[in-house]
Structure formats: C-alpha cells, structure tokens
Structure of DUF8129 domain-containing protein:
Amino acid sequence: MKPLPLPVRLAAGLAVTAVEQARKLPQQLVGLPVTVVSEALQLSMRVQQRVTELAIKGDDALSVLRPVEQEPEWATFDEDEEPEPTDPPDDGDDPWSEEERALAAERPGVLPNYDELSLPQLRARLRTLRVDELESLLAYERSHAGRPEFTGMLSRRIANLRAES
C-alpha cells in the first residue's frame, strides 16, 4: 500500500493533536490563572534583566569618556586635617620605629604626607609647587607606587609649567 501524501498526513496529525489538547483543556483551565501570572512575572523579570544589562553596557561605554575620581574634590575627612603636634613616643620598645624612620626619610620633603593624599588632594596642592619639586615627586611616585593617574597628572603639570616659562 502506497503512503498517503504528506499534506494529508499533516492534516490528520493536526486534527489528532487538536482533539488531544481539547481533552486536556478542562484540566489546564484550572491552572490557567497561575500559569498566566507566572509567565507575566517571568516576562517582567526578563525585561528588568535586559534593561540592567543595557545600563551596564552603557556605563562601560561611557566610562571611557569620563574617568572616575578616587574622591570628590569637595569631600573632606578627619584624616585630611593636619594633626596637632604631640610629644614623640618613646621608640625604645617599638621594633617598627626604625623602619618607619627609614621610610619617612625616603618620602619627598615637598609633601611629607604625599603617600596619604588622594588624587584630588594632590591636584589641589600642585599649583604651589615648582618644577624641581614636581620632578622629585614624580621620581618618588615612579619608584614607589607607580600609579598611572598620579604620574600622568604630575607629568602634565611639569609640561605645562615648562611651556609657560
């Protein structure tokens, strides 16, 4: 016996599937409200997730145009204020005192608290420094922390002062 043509077989398959689905319909109607609510919540979560992904991609793209500052210029903290002078502690029992003195001797004399300064704090102090002082800070930065944003800012300030001369 020769098989029936494909369109006829497809139509018969669709008819059987429709009858099966019609028989399941009463059982599915009971759970339909829960299913609809569940699918709506899933759709809402997918939309929120997509929006968040797009915002993150946008932030990444825009971060190239606008570098983030370490601390805002207007922010001040208790550590930024100069401490009141006190009597030096007795270093006789402190094993770290010799190392601290050696590190203090390495620090640039121009800004003794240079290592504690944030980028905006250093920027605020640069206008008062001469080229030779800036060069010593740059050499110190390169030999110690080597932070690109600090070395770049110091290099640009030195170049600007030389161009003004």
Remarks:
- The helical segments are 6-63, 97-106, 119-126, 131-143, 148-164.
- The chain has five helices and no strands.
